[in-house]
Amino acid sequence: CLSDLEPGWLDTPDAGGRLEKLEERFGRSAISEIAISDREHSGGWVPGGTSPVTPLRAAVRDHARWRGYLAGMVDFFAGVMADRAYDFVFCYPVQDGPSVAAGHVAHHLGIPFLSPKAIGFQAQTCLFDDVKTMVPVFRHDFMRSAVEPSALAPAYLDDARRTLAAFRARPAPPDYMALANAWTYAAPGAVLTAALLKRALFQEPPISLRYPYPLSRLVWEYRKWLWMLRDRNHGRFKQPSVLEGQPFAYFPLHYEPEASTLVSAPWHTDQTAVIEQAAKALPAGWVLAVKEHVPMLGRRPQGFYDRLAAMPKVVLISPYADSFALNRAARLTVTITGTAGLEAVLLQKPVVFLGASPMHILDRGYIYCPDTNRLGDAISNALSVPVADDETLVRFLAALAQHAVDVPSRLIWGGTGVITDEVVAGQPAAVARFAELIMMALTQAGALKPISERPSGEADDGGQDRTSRGSRPEG
């Protein structure tokens, strides 16, 4: 278990320039992205969210221990994968330093890397084969379908046309949002309170370095709930009616800290800085409508909303406003990696992404601008580029469905103890579908031959001679 190894990584000094040698081997950007990706390390880089204190979060405040941890973690995965004796690396979820380190090391060694992720549309989960860029495996069939229609099954295409029409007529939020919203309003329960009090009084240590100290968790849970009660009626929040009669761009706030930004947009972890740059870059007479994310109510630090409300051209919109109505009414949507960007493309609205998105496999309908200093040009370009045509969007949704599995959000987000052997046994179709998708992805990556092409009795190569497959197609 990785949690058993983490104390050793922390306590082993970074002697002999190990970290610098790892940078030379894997690249400075890879090591930086591994460091930024972990919410336990990156608290100071994410000023827009609060979290309880964990032993790991407290320990890495010591720069020497942080360097030792980072070097030990990357060294571990480099050693485990050194002989390339793996057909592939499968990791769920990619949301912390170890998972991102595993992805970077696998990529460097040419070992296929796969990870399932909810794409942000309905309840569909699909596989991604790049630890950072959010480029989905289904890109192969999507791109091939432009010149080879048989790449997508007619049934999926027909269903995609109906899905796109239904989405535009009555958009629905991703399946996981209902679960996240329910967690937001729940007060700390009596059982949780009693358990945390008991552990705090008896000074029971957290079960791993990533679990909060009991007293810190208890204080944070009640403070979050009380702040939620205060923030949901914050006087700075305006109703969408204040936007009538003036052009505006829409910026939906992200959950923080969140893997989608820490992993897929590591240079944009300060949303207030991004919002400031976006507001400055807007045309004269425009405003930036910034809508809070309901699950973040109570989790923002003191003064967060006041700072945003004080910015010229920024209007704070109620978290209860209709996100889809704002997306439709806006002249432009600006997002880091948010689902709102995907929805804007499907609605054929201009959108600027600052971070990675599955929509980047399209060749039109958005602008990707990772450099905030160029946002002014990006906004101008987004307002003039062609939108994605219906047939392209239908192919996108068909390719997604052809490579997706419907998994209830409670099984993805349910937390410790939710996914038991009994629960897995009760989802035979989902398990079989995941296995099918993994085999399809490995075949596309060249790691396995299609069964129809294997001579009788031929075994898989056991992961040998993969060095020529070190780079995967760009999305």
Describe the structure.
45% of the residues lie in helices and 8% in strands. It has a domain at 175-395: Glycogen Phosphorylase B (Rossmann fold). It has 21 helices and ten strands. The two termini are 33 Å apart. With 475 residues, it is an alpha/beta fold. Strands 6-5-4-7-8-9 form a six-stranded parallel beta sheet, sandwiched between helices. Strands 1-2-3-10 form a four-stranded mixed beta sheet.
How would you briefly describe this protein structure?
Helices cover about 45% and strands about 10% of the residues. The protein is built from 21 helices and 10 strands. Helix 3 (about 30-35) packs antiparallel against helix 6, helix 5 crosses helix 6 (about 95-110) and helix 10 runs antiparallel to helix 11 (about 215-230).
CATH architecture of one domain: 3-Layer(aba) Sandwich
Computed structural class: alpha/beta
Cα Rg: 23 Å
Assembly state (oligomeric) = single chain
Largest sheet: 6 strands, parallel
Distance between the termini: 33 Å
CATH superfamily of one domain: Glycogen Phosphorylase B
Strand content: 5-15%
What is the CATH first-level class name of one domain? Answer: Alpha Beta
What are the defining features of this structure?
475 residues; four-stranded mixed β-sheet; globular; 21 helices; Rossmann fold; 10 strands; six-stranded parallel β-sheet; disordered C terminus; alpha/beta
Topology at a glance:
Blueprint lengths: L1 H10 L6 H9 L1 H10 L17 H5 L3 H18 L8 E2 L6 H13 L3 E6 L5 E5 L10 H7 L8 H16 L5 H11 L4 H12 L12 H18 L16 E5 L6 H6 L6 H11 L5 E5 L12 H6 L4 E4 L5 H7 L2 E4 L3 H8 L4 E3 L13 E2 L6 H8 L7 H13 L1 E3 L2 H5 L7 H5 L2 H17 L31
Parallel strand pairs: 1-2, 4-5, 4-7, 5-6, 7-8, 8-9
Antiparallel strand pairs: 2-3, 3-10
Helix pairs in contact: 1-5, 2-3, 3-6, 5-6, 7-18, 8-18, 10-11, 13-17
